[in-house]
Every structure is written in structure tokens, then in C-alpha cells.
Amino acid sequence: MPAYAFHSPRELLLYLGFGLLAGPVAATYIRLLYLAQDIFNNHWKVPRWLKPMVAGLIVGLVGIFLPQVFGVGYDTIGRILSGQATGF
């Protein structure tokens, strides 16, 4: 992990803003996650064995364009933190 340098106390205001923004974003993410789960489980009437196959197909298709979704992500996180990320 690269070294971090604290330059000014004003940076704390930025971090406070990020922290205050993270709460509503996380709550919205959780609500959308539960909504997707409800739709997938209750409103999509297909055989139960077909759902994992469809999910695997979706992940595979996404992985063609974003291979970062495969694996645990340590390499991707390391590149982002070191400034080597070339885009997604």
C-alpha cells in the first residue's frame, strides 16, 4: 500500500463529507440489493435449478468485458491504490 501524506487539516472536511455521503449510499445499495433479491426469488417464475445457471452466465458475460470481476480482487485493488489502474 502506498504511503499516505497528510497535507492540511482541511482534508478532514473532505473525509467528513465522504463519510456523510457513504451512509445514504450504503443504505440505497442495501435497499436495491434486497429489491433485486425479491424480484429474482419471487417474481421471476423459472425452475429453481435455472437461476444459478443464469447468474453464472451473467457473471461470465460481464467478465468478458471486465475481467476484474473474476477472483478475489487483490490485484485490482493493489493497482488502484498504486495509481496503475488504466480504467475499467
Q: What's the quaternary structure here?
A: single chain
The overall pLDDT average reads: 87
Largest sheet: none
What is the CA–CA distance across the termini?
Answer: 20 Å
- Kindly name the structural category: mainly alpha
Commentary on this structure:
This protein has 88 residues and is mainly α. The chain has two domains: 37 residues; 43 residues, no CATH class. The model has no long low-confidence stretch (mean pLDDT 87).
How would you briefly describe this protein structure?
This protein has 88 residues and is an all-alpha fold.
Keywords:
single chain, 88 residues, mainly alpha, 2 domains, 0% strand
Secondary structure topology:
Elements: H1 11-43, H2 50-65, H3 74-81
